[in-house]
Amino acid sequence: MSEKSDEYWKKKLTSEQYRVLREKGTEAPFSGEYVKFDKKGKYVCAACGNVLFDSSTKFDSSCGWPSFYDAKKGSVEFHDDDSHGMHRIEVTCKKCGGHLGHIFDDGPKPTGKRYCINSVSLKFVNE
Predict the structure, then answer these.
(1) Per the confidence metrics, is the pTM higher than 0.90?
(2) How many percent of the chain have pLDDT more than 70?
């Protein structure tokens, strides 16, 4: 996990990236750059560049955020999240600790998982 200061992140990230990645915010549904995005490549953490997802695992879940059925091995961590009066599992970047989104058990095969990820937490890199 990153030991960078809040000041470092405030200078490196946009205000919206900071709100989501560092303050565990959520972008508005259907507003993100990668919701209807289908190019082939990799999705990396917008804060630190850690490779998180491959485009081959992205699918349209119609939930309003980019969805993936699997993450790159060892790239993310999971945490209990009891905010907003519900229990969810938060997904964070293993390298910098940035908030990415949440994981649910309603995804497609082969994993049955849906990584519901904020677009602003990601950057796309062409293959």
Answers:
(1) yes
(2) 98
